[in-house]
Amino acid sequence: MIKFPENFAWGAATSGPQSEGCFKKKHQNVFDYWYSIDPKAFYNGVGPDTASNFYNDYKSDLKLMREAGIKNLRTSIQWSRLIDDFEEATVNQDAVDFYNNVIDEMLKDGITPYINLCHFDMPIELQKKYGGFESKHVTDLYAKFADKCFELFGDRVHHWFTFNEPKVIIDGGYLYKFHYPLKVDGPLAVQVAYNINLASAKAIKKFHERFTDGKNKIGIILNLTPAYPASQNKDDLAAAHFANLWDDNMFLDPAILGYYPKDLVKILSDAGVLWDSTPEELDLIKHNTIDELGVNFYHPERVQAPQVSPKSLQDWMPDIYFDNYEMPGRVMNVDKGWEIYPKTLYDIAINIRDNYGNIDWFVSENGMGVSREERFIKDGVVQDDYRIKFIKDHLRELHKGIEAGSNCHGYFVWTGIDCWSWMNAYRNRYGLVRDDIHTQIKTIKKSGHWYRKLSDNNGFD
Ligand code: BGP
């Protein structure tokens, strides 16, 4: 039996925009808007309007999740739902009632809320007027919104997060066109990355001004994708070094250590694309680091030296420093196209232990996306043994990391109930609970019944 430490937090993660549906929203976020102008960009033309109907079904959804062993739930508050006037951070009362009800219901059901404040869902007005996080003014508006959330819900929510996967905002919105505003602009991506770190630090400052007794914690959720080099030759090693700096350390280091990695600053400076910063801002980042870290882990990166000389490209893009490497023999999740390599979770645990002060952390997302899961329905239940295996394999590595002294306090599967996922809509299902999106009938999968035992026994055989 693999036993986890006492009080280990078993949970699941979702987000407001992916679960709630757009019911009674006064403002659109960038995805609501993008879908309204270009529904064909989304898998099967399915948008966020209904999602998994959490706005209406939250009571029964929470009960189902609790039945599936979920004792901690990470979701997000939508800026575009809660706030009425973005400059003043006045609130929309229906949204306040909704989030109050959700939090109260969670607590009633024995589910601890973990609340995140930005899950890719910039309000479209702010994107159009200011360019979203392209603008430093928006970092102030974001901090006001965050503070409003702390004021309204901080009496019952003790785990807060400023951002989910800021790297994906950069990749999707400013490099590879899978998030609105669909720009391709490397130097702007660098600036937006910096501005998000700044926004996070500003929100953390407000948080620590408001909560001083240490009962409430604030963190950030980062998708870590450690890069392994294709070989030990120096060019491949340099490629992996840059990939790690760009994909992970650009957010990890300021969030935990309070400063940027020197090597990254040098590379970006040499290329003439370093962000615009002031000494006051860097000081703010330095003094407003996180209390706990959420790690979303799905897959590592395999990289090799770039095959194209950087000099042959006109515009600066981060991928001039490395190419992906399709390592022979990798185990792949073919539906999603991601490598499955659980040992990376151990490597992450050790990296946090050794290089980040062994900060309090947890796995804030990990899971397996599979398409057309109706293939596996037998006797009305999705027989998702592949998901159980996936989770077990990752938990074994995580457990080794904890045994080696890494300070990990929980594991949150992505996700509780199948939810809507950006451009992929409902293509890949991740839930412990199946959602039939035509009927909104929700049924616990085999993995959900298994997860219940895992969570009740605090371990597995
Ligand atoms: C993470 C995001 C989640 C979720 C998940 C699965 O990066 O934080 O929001 O979308 O990935 O992604 P997908 O459904 O696109 O396979």
TrEMBL record:
One of its GO terms (biological process) is carbohydrate catabolic process. Its EC number is 3.2.1.21. The keyword Chloroplast does not apply. Pfam families: Glyco_hydro_1. InterPro entries: GH, Glyco_hydro_1. GO terms for molecular function: beta-glucosidase activity. Gene3D superfamilies: Glycosidases. Keywords: Glycosidase, Hydrolase. One of its GO terms (cellular component) is cytosol. Belongs to the glycosyl hydrolase 1 family. PANTHER family: 6-PHOSPHO-BETA-GLUCOSIDASE GMUD, GLYCOSYL HYDROLASE. This is Glycosyl hydrolase, family 1. It comes from Lactobacillus ultunensis DSM 16047.
